[in-house]
Every structure is written in C-alpha cells, then in structure tokens.
C-alpha cells in the first residue's frame, strides 16, 4: 500500500467529496498522524494503522457546535501495546454528536478501522447521489447496518483482530446507544446510573444459547470464553471465531430528559474494577468532564486494572436543560442477535 510522501500535520482541514452544499463537506480532523479521507477500504485500513483517535469538528470559522462538553482519558496500562481507539463527531449543521469507544484485542487494527469508518457508514457518505448527505437516517436500523458494514470491512482486510464497540449518538433530544461486546455506556439521571448497554459475555443465557445453537461452545477457563478463546460473545472482526462471535449490535433508542447530567463510555478495563454506580459517582465529583475522565482513569489503575483504559465523559447538563421531558425515555431496543 503506497503512502503519502510526507505525513500530514496532526490537525488538517479536509474537503470531502460529498454532495455540494452538504454540511459534511468540510471538517477539521484531529488525528495522531493524518491521512486524506478515502472511501477505499484499503486506504482506510492503511490510515487506521497510523491512527488511534479521531475527532471531527465543524470548521473553525463557524460557531462552535453543541453545548456538550466532553473529556477523554486513555492509557496503555500494563499491556504491551495500546489496542483501544475512540472517535468523537460534533456537527452543528444537523445537531449531530457522537462519542465512541472501541476496545481492540488480538491487535489494534480492528479498533482503529472501526473508529475511522463506523460513523462514516452511519452517515452514508458513499450514497450521496439521490440522498441528502447532511441528514443521515437517525435510526437503530441505520446504525445496525453501519456496524455490519464495518465488520465486513475489517474481515475483508484479512486481520484476525477484533474490537468491542460502544457508540453513543445524539441528534436533538433523540439518542442511540449501541454496543457489541463488553464496552459500556452509562447515563446519569438524578442520583442514579442507568446502563444503556448490555455487556455481551458468553455465559449470558441468551448468548450461550445462540452460540451453542450454531455449534459453538462456551468454555469456562479463568472466565467463560467462546471456543475457549474470547471472553465476549459479540465484537467487530474476530474472523476466526465467526459465526459464534457476532457483530450484531444491541441498540437502545430514545430521548433525553432534563434530569440527565453525565454519560460515561468506557472499555471493560474500567468496568472490571468499578460498578456503573461507582463510576458515575466519581465522575460527578469532578468539576469538568476532562477532569472526570482523568479521575476515572487514575481510580481504575489504583484499583489494579492492568488493561488498556479508554474513558469518555460527556457533560449533558447545558444540553438537556432545554429538553421537553423531565426523564430519559428508552422507546425501543433493537437486537437482531436474540430476536
């Protein structure tokens, strides 16, 4: 795969070949080492090998987008390499925001490809002809298709790596919270911590039944593992373990309320040592979401987590202050894996 003669600077302006007048036509892209956008899968994977995080924002000359403040903290922990990736999209033109964590295993490539492409698939950038690219279909079905398309891309690259995914999307008062694997999304409401995702562990009754119906096995070693290998039953990638490990996401769809204050999105390195209630209580002790994310990172390290750590904290308070409803409402859950 040929590379650019010179790496792009860490922050570059991209002019994407979308529909004319589309609000997605121009972005400010922040990456560790930049590559130009491409819809070609090989080029995406090549850039993903260089990129561990992606943050997309509106071009600088326009008014700053939503009133959602966020903080991100990450560390390699005691592992030999960092296999996590994350992405944040913040788009004023359509009131669109996302925060995503991808926890890789057996290498980092799957997580990096997912961070770079899943939301692009969700926005349908390759279907501009005859579509309004600036207004993606904000539905659970569209997000499911993005998960499956990303999985096909990862598998098509020939990698055996995989990634748990947790993705939180906002448009207006509506939200989508999707996951495949054991990364988790927790939202704070009043004094409570509400889990919007389910940790997909192989010993969950519905997950075990699905795996065994396909001819697979859940083997309890140190923890229950699919085929004695992977300690989660859903993930993007993991080609050698298909069809037992599925990329099918569980997606909660609903609307926010005025009582919703924080969101914590994190990989299992956090949830192995903290409960959802503990994590939310810690986050609420910090004055800013950046400090909250750092506090959670330091807390889990102090409690003995040895995994890669990635945590995102969102401050929803200014955003939800104008919501019509008082409380969160989950209107439906889409989960084709167990339907």
What brief labels describe this structure?
Phosphatase 2c, domain 1, 339 residues, ten-stranded mixed sheet, five-stranded antiparallel sheet, disordered N terminus, 24% helix, alpha+beta, globular
In short:
With 339 residues, the protein is of the alpha+beta class. Helices cover 24% and strands 30% of the residues.
Protein described:
There is one protein chain. The protein has 339 residues and is α+β, with helices and mostly antiparallel strands. The chain contains eight helices and 17 strands. It has one domain: Phosphatase 2c, domain 1 (4-Layer Sandwich), CATH 3.60.40. The strands form three sheets. Strands 1, 2, 3, 5, 6, 7, 8, 13, 14 and 17 form a ten-stranded mixed sheet that branches. A five-stranded antiparallel sheet has the order 4-16-15-9-10. Helix 2 packs antiparallel against helix 3. The longest helix is centred in the middle third of the chain and has 17 residues. It is globular, with a radius of gyration of 19 Å.
């Amino acid at each position: 795969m040929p590379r650019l003669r010179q790496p792009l600077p860490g922050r570059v302006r991209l002019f994407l070949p979308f529909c004319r007048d589309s609000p997605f036509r121009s972005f400010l892209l922040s990456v560790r080492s930049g590559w130009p956008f491409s819809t070609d899968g090989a080029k995406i994977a090549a850039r993903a090998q260089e990129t561990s995080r992606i943050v997309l924002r509106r071009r600088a000359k326009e008014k700053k987008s939503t009133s959602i403040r966020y903080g991100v903290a990450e560390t390699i922990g005691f592992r030999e390499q960092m296999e996590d990736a994350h992405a944040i999209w913040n788009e004023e033109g359509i009131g669109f925001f996302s925060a995503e964590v991808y926890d890789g295993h057996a290498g980092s490539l799957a997580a990096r490809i997912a961070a770079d492409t899943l939301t692009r698939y969700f926005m349908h950038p390759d279907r501009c002809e005859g579509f309004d690219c600036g207004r993606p279909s904000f539905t659970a079905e569209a997000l499911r298709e993005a998960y499956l398309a990303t999985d096909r891309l990862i598998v098509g690259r020939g990698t055996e790596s995989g990634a748990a995914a947790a993705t939180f999307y906002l448009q207006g008062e509506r939200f989508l919270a999707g996951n495949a694997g054991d990364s988790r999304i927790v939202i704070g409401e009043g004094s409570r911590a509400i889990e919007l995702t389910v940790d997909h562990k192989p010993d969950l009754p519905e997950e075990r039944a699905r795996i065994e119906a396909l001819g697979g096995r859940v083997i309890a070693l140190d923890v229950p593992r699919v085929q004695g290998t992977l300690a989660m039953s859903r993930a993007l990638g993991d080609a050698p373990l298909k069809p037992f490990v599925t990329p099918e996401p569980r997606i909660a769809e609903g609307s926010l309320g005025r009582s919703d204050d924080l969101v914590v999105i994190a990989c299992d390195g956090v949830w192995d040592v903290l409960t959802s209630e503990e994590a939310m209580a810690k986050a609420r002790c910090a004055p800013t979401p950046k400090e909250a994310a750092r506090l959670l990172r330091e807390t889990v390290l102090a409690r003995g987590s040895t995994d890669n750590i990635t945590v995102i904290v969102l401050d929803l308070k200014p955003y939800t202050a104008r919501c019509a409803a008082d409380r969160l409402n989950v209107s439906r859950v889409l989960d084709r894996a167990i339907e």
